[in-house]
Design goal:
This protein is α/β, with parallel strands linked by helices. The protein has a single domain, classed as Alpha/Beta hydrolase fold, catalytic domain (Rossmann fold). Helices cover 36% and strands 17% of the residues. It contains 9 helices and 8 strands. Strands 1-2-4-3-5-6-7-8 form an 8-stranded mixed beta sheet, with helices on both faces. α8 links the parallel β7 and β8. The radius of gyration is 18 Å and the shape is globular. It starts with 5 loop residues before the first helix and ends in a 6-residue tail after the last helix. This is Lipase. Keywords: Hydrolase. It holds the Pfam family Abhydrolase_3. InterPro entries: AB_hydrolase_3, AB_hydrolase_fold, GDXG_lipolytic_enzyme. It comes from Pseudomonas antarctica.
Length: 309
Amino acid sequence: MYPISPQLAAFVTHTESFSSDDSSLVGLRRNYDRMCQAFTPPKPEGLQVWDYSLGGVSVRSYLPTTPTPPEGWPCLLYMHGGGWVVGGLDSHDFICFELADALQVLVIAIDYRLAPEHPFPAAYEDCRAVWQAIQAGEGPHAIHLQRLAVIGDSAGGNLAAALCLGLRDDGQPLPLAQVLIYPGLGGASDLPSRRDCMDAPLLSTADTDCYLALYLLGAGNPSAYAMPLLAENFSGLPKALIAVAQFDPLRDDGMLYAERLQAAGVSAVLYPGKGLVHGCLRARGQVPEVDQLYNYLLHYLRSEGLTQV
């Protein structure tokens, strides 16, 4: 039903091998962490990694060993995926390593609080707290605030978009760009991708509904900071790269967001992710179409000045 390449199919099979009959929250997180560990490469030579706190939130920085640039580091603030329920600092080492090493920039990953123990707005508030701390000059690194972008995958893409909305609404300094990779943005349940990709590999429509319900637990009427597509106004937001996956129930969320940004006069690039599935970033080096996504991602970030190389 989903015509994915043999290489991507092999990746899907390997990923699914870490699932189990234990559907408890503890089991879900344990299996996800095991899967992530299996796909995490060794730390690149010449990269310093350490954990600390910013704005009262745990973060991890990835820093090249090259000298600090005179104006401070270009910086990517990374928000990990995992449906707001699973994942953490270890789960997305693989892409933070890659971005810091390939671009020779500072990457800071946020260990935001997880649902359902900490439903919305906890994760959103944690991301805002880290942003404010960076703006205030806190932390061990000199950061070039005009070369600071937000980036996230899946639920992390939601948080990156929500952060941009909240900062704009409050008249705060904005990121240079927002980079959203197969984001879940609170699109309507009757979007075509929800139906067409109902049982897509690695993320089903039922999965997306379950994760969102856990995130919104007790939230009442959800706001645009929980579901960015609910925003009434998309003007004045940072330029964007939105990468979607063809075989993903969340595909139309990203497509709609790109359309609404463009209609509001915001520069937005949509990467259509032909042949890709949700969660495929970990297939770097194994699947040519995923390597194409990475290459485009790095090209975009370089074109926006988020690089030293």
